[in-house]
Amino acid sequence: MRTWRSPKRWPISHAASGVAPERGRVTVESYVRRWIDGHPKLGPRTRERYNGLLKHHISESRLGDLTTASVRRWNARLHTEASPDTAAKAYRLLRAACNTAVEDSVLVVNPCQVKGAGVEHHDERPTATVAEVVALAAAVPEWFRMLVQLATWTSLRFGELAALTRADVDLLHGTVKVSKNRQRLDDGTSVVVIPKSAAGRRTVTIPPPLVPQLAEHMERYTGGAPDAPLFTGSKGAPLDRSRWGAMWREARTTVGRTDLKFHDLRRTGNTLAAATGASTRELMARMGHSSPAPR
After folding, report:
1. What are the φ and ψ backbone dihedral angles of 107, each rounded to 5 degrees?
2. How far apart are CA 167 and CA 164, in angstroms?
3. pLDDT by residue (tens digit) across 104-151?
4. Which domains does the chain have, with CATH numbers?
5. What's the pTM value of the predicted model, to 2 decimals?
6. Which residues, 6 or more positions from 67, have their beta carbon under 8 angstroms from its beta carbon?
């Protein structure tokens, strides 16, 4: 009997799918792989994550043998053998590929009909106080203090901050333009990609008290060319997430907030902005969200 490939192999039911036999014989693995390879809008990091999910959690079972019941069992198994978040991500990938299979008449109906299976339930993340943000900025090397400040007060993601250049900053009007995202791939290479959604490409206002500090940072640490990175490593290389992660862990230990991820500064800034009366629409625009769901 064919099985799903997961941390522990387990059987699934085989049921008539109502599709042509030659089409029903295609494996889930091969179809999802073709779906990933043929998807034009996937960024390199997303493509990498999808291939990882395919390799470890999606099976060699025949596509035509999938049923809602077998998908439900597979999803439940992943909850315990991997994690709830992994189960949700793998389910969404399979559901998207099966949607295309229906469009291509490979499947009559999408078997991924498990209510709530694709929803990730995130624990409430902590936030920092204004005093803690100041302390965290003081605890990192000088050329990275503005990185901590901008992460908080503009709510930009790490990849967005890492991709900023001199040309993206308008000191006169106190704004920063977000149009790129730097990503680190599993092989260690760094790539710059364009945000997939229009909401991700935005202009964010810099709090006025921060503008002179940003101007000083650029004068001291940013090259003069328009495409000079706003933030670099100590030797001028593009900002690297893993090296920055080590510095961040040391900084948060210094201030006694080992629970804080760097991404939590983004939520901190959004929380502080909401406290000043910013509307949900304004907060979504600031964060680069196309929906109110947290990310």
Report:
1. -120, 150
2. 8
3. 888 999 999 999 999 988 778 899 999 999 999 999 999 999 999 999
4. 3-103 (1.10.150), 130-287 (1.10.443.10)
5. 0.70
6. 13, 15, 111
